[in-house]
Design a protein that fits this description.
Radius of gyration: 22 Å
Number of domains: 2
CATH superfamily of the largest domain: Fumarylacetoacetase-like, C-terminal domain
CATH topology of the largest domain: Fumarylacetoacetate hydrolase, domain 2
Strand content: 25-35%
Number of strands: 26
Bound molecules: calcium ion
Structural class: alpha+beta
Distance between the termini: 50 Å
Helix content: 10-25%
CATH class of the largest domain: Alpha Beta
């Protein structure tokens, strides 16, 4: 369990002025990691930390201003083009690096002039995936999402009997995960419209987003050795935003009996910034289970889970259509929910994933599953917001939507705020929908 320390002090300011704006995502209390280079330079990608509107280039910092002890060991793997090296070092190293980065970036720090030479303005950088993702698992942790979607398919039994006993998941595809900014081509697939005698191959007519939280595994476990729930968060490096793009018509026709496949594996978008569990320490909440529901089996229950297993992370979805972009009106917010409402926690996902001895590895990614809140306006997908496509909704500029149109840009955002602490943000995970290949002829 991460505890509060001086790096969370809300009074802490940075000598990087843009980090001190109250509405910014990246104050000195955040310090999220990404993999970046200056746009269009062909430079090697390397690890960086966000501070205000700058990126602190950790490869450059190692040369300009070596840190102390364990932090220097952590810094030395940050010239790599992925965070896997840092993730593999483990919690003590992550903590030591955070302490030192906080120290050199705070107002009044010695040698700020030297460290300043390692800053790169964020508008001038491009990002790579934060990690080499060996395996990607997508969970289904929001009971509000599972119930709303289940009701569309099985009105009498929206939730299947296993839902309240284990964090349900499937193994996803890592190769098509991209970082924010990557365009998403409307996929072709087998569709079988209601009443049709046979399926056809065509571009999806029901392209959707899913608002999810990504969980990056730090240290792994040897095959055959489960991770106990009390140690589960020690293995987690941090969180990001994740959009699990979904072709609902492809999914509906293919998903039985083995689950999601081509309706999901064409694209997944993550935010470039990974917010560490250290940074999230002020925003943890007790996890609880309604008394009327089954309480978790012992391997999915624990003291730390009950005291601080949930994360108070507000999530929003924004849509910018081609017309909004042309008219410069800006994106429109579609929904808002909170990760605190998740039925299953991060630690429960880790403990359940490894309970059979499955080995997790540094850089593995979990999706939380679509996060939807208890209110219908808090839905994390269009499938829910439009009742399966039956209820189109209007946008402020007069357009309507059921599912995504070509040219639509979907933006996910996340922010943590609590009285007495500096609010922190996740940046964004954004992607624009491109028309299907071949003028729609699959
Ligand atoms: Ca999903």
């Amino acid at each position: 369990m991460r505890t509060l320390d001086s790096t969370h002090d809300p009074a802490l300011k940075s000598w990087v002025d843009s980090a001190n704006r109250p509405d910014g995502d990246f104050p000195i209390q955040n310090l999220p990691f990404a993999v970046f280079r200056r746009t269009g330079t062909g430079e090697p990608f390397r690890c960086g930390v966000a501070i205000g509107e700058q990126v602190l280039d950790l490869a450059a910092l190692a040369a300009l201003h070596p840190l102390e002890g364990r932090a220097q060991q952590a810094l030395s793997v940050c010239a790599q083009p992925a965070l896997n090296g840092l993730m593999a070092l483990g919690r003590e190293a992550w903590d030591a690096l955070r302490q030192e980065l906080s120290r050199v970036l705070r107002a009044g720090a010695q040698h700020a002039d030297r460290v300043a030479k390692a800053l790169v303005p964020q508008p001038g950088v491009e990002f790579a995936l934060p990690a080499r993702i060996g395996d990607y698992t997508d969970f289904y942790t929001s009971i509000h999402h599972a119930t709303a979607v289940g009701r569309q398919f099985r009105p009498d039994q929206p939730l299947l009997p296993n839902y309240k006993w284990m964090p349900i998941a499937y193994h996803g595809r890592a190769s098509s995960i991209g970082v924010s900014g990557q365009p998403v081509r409307r996929p072709c697939g087998q569709l079988k419209p209601q009443g049709a005698a046979q399926p056809k191959l065509a571009p999806t007519e029901r392209l959707d987003y899913e608002l999810e939280v990504g969980v990056f595994i730090g240290t792994g476990n040897p095959a055959g050795e489960p991770i106990a729930i009390e140690q589960a968060e020690e293995h987690v490096f941090g969180l990001c935003l994740l959009n699990d793009w979904s072709a609902r018509d492809v999914q509906a026709w293919e998903y039985q009996p083995l689950g999601p496949f081509l309706g999901k594996n064409f694209a997944t978008t993550v935010s470039p910034w990974v917010v560490t569990l250290e940074a999230l320490a002020p925003f943890r909440l007790p996890w609880s289970r309604p008394h009327a529901d089954p309480q978790p089996l012992p391997y999915l229950d624990g003291r730390e889970l009950r005291s601080a297993g949930a994360v108070d992370l507000e999530l929003t979805v924004w849509l910018e259509t081609a017309r909004m972009r042309a008219q410069g009106t800006g994106a429109e917010q579609l929904s808002r929910c909170n990760f605190r409402d998740s039925y299953w926690s991060i630690a429960q996902m880790v403990a359940h994933h490894s309970v059979n001895g499955c080995n997790l590895q540094p850089g593995d990614l979990f999706g939380s599953g679509t996060q939807s809140g208890p209110q219908s306006s808090e839905a994390g997908s269009l499938l829910e917001l439009t009742a399966g496509g039956r209820q189109p909704f209007g946008l402020a500029d007069g357009e309507t939507r059921t599912f995504l149109a070509d040219g639509d840009r979907v933006i996910l955002k996340g922010r943590c705020a609590r009285l007495g602490f500096a609010p922190i943000g996740f940046g964004e995970a954004a992607g624009i929908v491109l028309p299907a290949n071949g003028a729609g002829r699959c």
